Amino acid sequence: MKGFTNKNYEQLIESNNGRKFIKISKEWLAEEKKNRSIIDQKNDKIYKTLLSLPKERRIYINRVYHRNLKEDEIEIYDIEIIGKRANLLRADMVFKEKGKNVFYHIEQQTKNDKKMPVRMAGYQVGIMEIVGRNEEGKEALVLSSVLHTSEDNWTAATSIAEIQEDVDNGIPKIKGNMKTIGNYELNDIKDYSKEELLESESLVDKAMYLEKMKTGEEFIEGAKEVYKKIEEEEKEYMDKIIRIALSGILDVEEIETFIKELNVGGGKGMLAVKEVLEKDLKNRMAASFVNGEKRGEKRGEKRGKIQDAKNMLQENIDIDVIERVTGLKREEFI
Fold first, then answer.
1. What sign does the CA torsion over 318, 77, 200, 233 have?
2. Tell me: the pLDDT tens digits for 67-107?
3. Residue 116 and residue 122: Cα distance in Å, rounded?
4. Coarse DSSP helix, strand, coil percentages of the chain, rounded to the nearest 5 percent
5. For residue 125, which of 107, 114, 113, 141 has the smallest C-alpha distance?
């Protein structure tokens, strides 16, 4: 399995053997996770880790939702599966304003989703269903936001009104606002410069700063700058972020060497990591079969991939893993 290449992947697809595909995919991923400490849904885990810190969620919520809350006024609402009906949803992060039936819901996105307002409406109504009314009989207020951490342009609508059918009798559309079901605030990485993110007191912003690094050399230099800016007690959290970000790119020992050098200000260990990191950020995942370089070249081949993806979904394989293995987008097989 160690030498599994894009060519092997194409041969496996052409064989149209779904069971064999699933078996080999599982074996390959298990071996890669063991050897390279691969972490699925990296971005999701990075921002969940950071927003678990009281300071970070205070900064995020006050900035994005236009609040002025203290750290002890914001609680983590321990909920992932949302809704009581057939179409259950899995939320990325939900926080609660202490003593109030007010919730702050965050979805971390690296890809556009044209149905995001509809998804948000589902999350908001689902949370309202679960938490119920307060003592005064009022439903919960659920305020949503998207944390977009890709340099791609975010083109999805931010309100239900933008994508709903209009009427023809001269009645204007209702002007959306943040309190309207389906609306959300967009916190987009493209709205910040590298300098703004680096100088911010927020570790979330520091992580977004590293997201802007395009090459291995930029990432190394950027990480060195980040470690110069953060407090000593924050370094253990940034260490976790570096481990997540570089999992599957560098070996575990290489990652630990890199982190050690970051904590002491950089040195010879950086040189040992630099060449590998520079090469791998550009080539390793691009050359791997999980990137699906030739996806969609032939309709028949794509149909086969879609069926393989559906088979894997039935086997309860993580959706992000299926995307990586097949090169398909989740909306193509769900």
1. negative
2. 999 999 999 987 665 655 545 677 889 999 999 999 999 99
3. 10
4. 55, 10, 35
5. 141
Distance, in Å, from the CA atom of 62 to the CA atom of 299, rounded to the nearest integer, reads: 48
pLDDT in tens, 270-303: 555 555 565 555 454 343 333 333 333 444 567 7
Nearest Cα residue to 255 out of 267, 264, 247: 247
Quick check: is 143 in a domain? yes
**19 and 122 within one domain:** no
In a shared domain, residues 73 and 187: yes
Whether the per-residue pLDDT at 3 is higher than 70: the answer is: no
Structure tokens at 327: 């090169």
Q: How many domains, the chain?
A: 3
Hey, is 245 helix, strand or coil?
A: helix
Whether residue 219 contacts residue 210, with contact meaning beta carbons closer than 8 Å, is answered with yes
186 shares a domain with 54: yes
Instruction: From residue 75, give the alpha-carbon distance in Å to each of 104, 120, 186, 201, 202.
Output: 10, 21, 22, 21, 18
- The more confident residue out of 172 and 103 is 103
- The β-bridge partners of 97 are 74
Structure confidence at residue 78 (pLDDT): 74
Looking at the fold, whether 129 and 219 belong to one and the same domain comes out as no
Q: Is 215 in contact with 281 (CB distance < 8 Å)?
A: yes
Instruction: Decide if 296 contacts 333 (C-beta within 8 A).
Output: no
Q: Are both 253 and 299 inside the same structural domain?
A: no
List the domain range (segments joined by +) for residue 72. 45-191
Which residues is 109 bridged to in the sheet? 148
Closest CA to 266 of 231, 228, 317: 228
What the block records as the tokens of 111 is 């890809």
